[in-house]
Design a protein that fits this description.
The protein has 166 residues and is α/β, with parallel strands linked by helices. The protein is built from six helices and eight strands; from the N terminus they run βαβαβααβαβαβββ. It has one domain: Alpha-Beta Barrel (fumarase), CATH 3.20.130.10. Strands 2-3-4-5-7 form a five-stranded mixed barrel.
Amino acid sequence: MKREIKTPITNDDINSLQVGDMIYISGKIYCGRDAVLPKICRLIDEEKLGDIDLVGSVIFHTAVSPAGVGPTSSNKVEIEGSFAKLSEAGVRLHLGKGAIGKETIAKLDEFNSVFAITPPVTALLGNNTISQRLIAFPELGMEAFYELEVKDYPCIIAAAHNKSIY
């Protein structure tokens, strides 16, 4: 059975997900990695997010380049260090690749968020990307903060409810 999750993601959606579930994400998602996520966290602290609405959102750990999008390692200090702040601000699903730490998994549970992984399948994700829009920090080039509209992005829930596949 194909399980589609649409953004914005609700708390009920998160509560229904279990480690190992295969899901397909559709809707608008944000993209950011180690260069931009600390900047987004500072904007949260300064209450200067402007038009960026993180409630019910997905953050995909990737850069947006002419070659397409593919996950980067989510356990980079700057990325994994952003999970708690972003989850508290309303991000419900963090999407990337690689193992994350137990403390991060506990923070996800505290803020009713999950972590999902997707394999590095740039060609497939390119076919499932409907549009892209630069949101903030254009000086970072492909590592700026982008919003994508996607259809059926495949992923597996890797951490949910204080459990992990790792």
